Amino acid sequence: EDYHIPDEELSQYGSRGSAIHAMIDQWIKTASWDEDYINRRDLILLKTGSLRLYDTLPQINFVGFMEEYGKDITFKEGEFLGYNSEHFYCGRPDRVGTYRKKKTIFDWKTGAMKDSFFRQMAAYAKLDDPRLKGIEQMMVVPLNPNNKSGYGRPVVSTEIDKYFNLFLRDRKDYKEKFNV
Fold this sequence. Notes:
By secondary structure, the protein is an alpha+beta fold. The chain is 39% helix and 17% strand. It has helices at 7-30, 40-48, 62-69, 116-125, 160-178; strands spanning 73-75, 82-84, 89-91, 95-99, 102-109, 137-142, 155-157.
């Protein structure tokens, strides 16, 4: 999928994603939510970039999401690199844990919900890593600065095989389109 935005803006959005991931990871470990855990390069780009995305960070409300939905969530490992030897790809799930006592892959998203999010998580669920054995469902955690509360309802799917097959189809189409 082409992003249809200038590289400079794409870099800024990437830095915001990295910053949010760092803050969430630190909150999970310490219950502290602040920008001290953001990589210096990302922080500079967020503050000085043309989009001024630093100003959107307070509108991302992971803490509010956890206050509303956290009683049903436990977090375990996250941000580890995994590999699928059969289909030859790598991935780094945001977090693994449980939601309503079912083993779950979590993914933090700040944009509008897309079907491709579940394809990505299904690919994570099929990585050759013991921490991913027995994944029962996938959850998108919507952290949207355009939403008044700064978060949305969790979006959950148990259709891992369906989305994994769509992921494989997308890879095949990509390889054929770009001859790789």
